[in-house]
């Protein structure tokens, strides 16, 4: 299972390594959960927590977890639509806090089908290739997702607060934070990496962090704000210190990345798995290590 849709969770290529190194403890906490990662690739933990500072993402999980058959029926009646760019652009800018749960979820689904990323948080480009099609086939997957989210505890707090709240020797913290190289993708990205590194050093629980360790060319080509650029560089420096202090593997996978003004063609994803406990498996594609 890969989440609500195939795009949910971006670490499928690392999932075998994540599963091989995830400790079997009582409590699992996705500290910067976003749309979730471990929920879709690991067996169910006795206690599971998803936290994110973005209230819209947490509401999305809560609404999905509470779906009843009657709610799915109502959603199915609304969800037989034809994509329209004007409607799509209107949904991108609406105040979703005013919507009831069904309309909130419907808006997410509509934007997912009509856009590159698909919700009111990760809104990007209208892609009208699906115009005129029915999307009721999504509903069975949504019901399956709802069942998986049952009994999950949802939190809407800063990452540091959650680390301190749930810390115990029986807790496994999983962190897939806003990457320093790509912080512009997130609606809320003000993670204090200095406090994060200090807090991680003091935890009694086990933790794993997955993070892009490369500084994207986007930093120099698309980010003009000096404060944002400083945040990216300083955060990346903290990440490099974590690499020097803890066990880690480096994984790489080729992918194509282009920009409107530059074409970088083939490039490798460079991701680090960092833990405060010994790593068990050896990476299949180890391209660099400290």
Description:
The protein has a 7-stranded mixed sheet, sandwiched between helices. Helix 4 crosses helix 5 (101-114). It has 290 residues and is an alpha/beta fold. Helix content is 36%, strand content 17%.
How is the secondary structure organized here?
Elements: H1 15-21, E1 27-30, E2 47-51, H2 55-65, H3 69-78, H4 85-93, H5 101-114, H6 138-149, E3 153-155, H7 159-166, E4 171-175, H8 193-202, E5 206-212, H9 218-221, H10 226-245, E6 248-258, E7 263-275
Parallel strand pairs: 1-2, 1-4, 2-3, 4-5
Antiparallel strand pairs: 5-7, 6-7
Helix pairs in contact: 2-6, 3-5, 4-5, 7-8
How many β-strand stretches?
Answer: 7
CATH class of the largest domain: Alpha Beta
Strand numbers in spatial order across the main sheet: 3-2-1-4-5-7-6
* Number of spatially distinct domains: 2
User: What general form does the structure show?
Assistant: globular
Using the coordinates shown, work out and report the CATH topology of the largest domain: Rossmann fold
Q: Under the CATH scheme, which architecture of the largest domain would be assigned?
A: 3-Layer(aba) Sandwich
End-to-end span in angstroms? 34 Å
Helix content: 25-40%
Mind telling me the C-alpha Rg?
A: 19 Å
Average pLDDT confidence is 79
Helix-strand string? HEEHHHHHEHEHEHHEE
How big a fraction of the residues is strand?
15-25%
Number of helices: 10
CATH superfamily of the largest domain: Vaccinia Virus protein VP39
Largest sheet entry? 7 strands, mixed
Q: Report the uncertain regions.
A: 116-133, 257-262, 284-290
* Helix/sheet category: alpha/beta
């Amino acid at each position: 299972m890969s989440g609500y849709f195939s795009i949910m969770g971006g670490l499928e290529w690392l999932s075998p390594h994540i599963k091989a190194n995830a400790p079997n403890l009582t409590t699992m906490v996705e500290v910067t959960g976003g749309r979730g990662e471990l929920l879709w690739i690991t067996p169910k933990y006795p206690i599971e927590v998803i936290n994110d500072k973005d209230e819209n993402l947490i509401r999305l999980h809560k609404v999905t977890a509470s779906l009843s058959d009657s709610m799915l029926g109502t959603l199915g009646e609304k969800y037989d639509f034809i994509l329209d760019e004007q409607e799509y652009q209107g949904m991108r800018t609406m105040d979703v806090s005013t919507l009831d749960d069904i309309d909130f979820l419907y808006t997410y689904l509509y934007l997912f089908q009509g856009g590159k990323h698909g919700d009111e948080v990760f809104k990007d480009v209208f892609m009208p290739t699906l115009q005129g099609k029915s999307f009721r086939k999504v509903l069975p997957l949504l019901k399956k997702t709802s069942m998986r989210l049952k009994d999950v505890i949802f939190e809407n707090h800063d990452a540091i607060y959650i680390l301190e709240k749930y810390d115990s020797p029986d807790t496994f913290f999983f962190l897939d934070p806003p990457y320093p190289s790509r912080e512009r993708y997130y609606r809320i990205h003000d993670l204090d990496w200095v406090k994060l590194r200090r807090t991680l050093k003091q935890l009694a629980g086990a933790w794993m962090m997955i993070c892009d360790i490369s500084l994207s060319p986007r930093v120099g080509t698309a980010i003009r704000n000096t404060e944002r650029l400083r945040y990216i560089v300083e955060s990346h420096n903290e990440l490099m210190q974590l690499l020097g202090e803890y066990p880690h593997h480096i994984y790489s996978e080729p992918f194509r990345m282009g920009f409107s003004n530059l074409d970088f063609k083939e490039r490798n994803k460079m991701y680090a798995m960092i833990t405060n406990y010994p790593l068990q498996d050896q990476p299949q594609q180890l391209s660099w290590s400290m």
